[in-house]
C-alpha cells in the first residue's frame, strides 16, 4: 500500500459507503485522513494562516478532530452523468 492509498481509504458500515462531514462548514470526504487535514484549518491558526508551534492547538489531537467529524452512511444512490459532477475539469 502506497502513501497515496492510505489517504484514499474508503470506509463502510453494514456494506454501505461512509462519508465524513465537517460540523463547522459542511465539507465532506470519503477519506478520514484527508478530512482531518481539512479540519486542521479550523484549529487555532494565526491571521497569516501559520500554525503557531508549541501552543495547545499545534499538535494534532484525534479527539479534537473527531469533535468536528460527522459520520454519514450512504444508503441511497442515483446515477448521474459525468457533466453533472462539480469540480470536473
**From the helix content, strand content and strand pairing, which structural class follows?**
alpha+beta
Proportion in helices? 10-25%
Distance between the termini: 28 Å
Number of strands: 4
Low-confidence stretches: none
Order of helices and strands: HEEEHHE
Major sheet description: 4 strands, antiparallel
- Please give the radius of gyration in angstroms: 16 Å
Q: How many independent structural domains?
A: 1
Enumerate how many helices there are, as a single number: 3
Strand content: 15-25%
Query: What form results from the Cα inertia axes?
Result: globular
Return the average pLDDT rounded to an integer: 77
Describe this structure in words.
- The chain has one domain.
- Helices cover 21% and strands 18% of the residues.
- The protein contains 3 helices and 4 strands; from the N terminus they run αβββααβ.
- A hairpin with a 2-residue loop joins strand 1 and strand 2.
Amino acid at each position: 500500500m502506497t502513501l497515496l492509498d492510505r489517504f484514499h481509504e474508503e470506509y463502510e458500515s453494514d456494506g454501505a459507503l461512509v462519508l465524513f462531514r465537517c460540523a463547522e462548514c459542511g465539507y465532506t470526504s470519503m477519506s478520514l485522513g484527508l478530512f482531518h487535514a481539512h479540519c486542521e484549518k479550523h484549529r487555532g491558526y494565526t491571521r497569516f494562516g501559520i500554525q503557531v508551534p508549541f501552543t495547545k492547538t499545534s499538535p494534532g489531537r484525534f479527539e479534537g478532530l473527531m469533535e468536528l467529524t460527522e459520520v454519514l452512511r450512504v444508503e441511497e444512490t442515483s446515477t448521474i452523468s459525468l457533466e453533472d459532477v462539480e469540480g470536473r475539469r
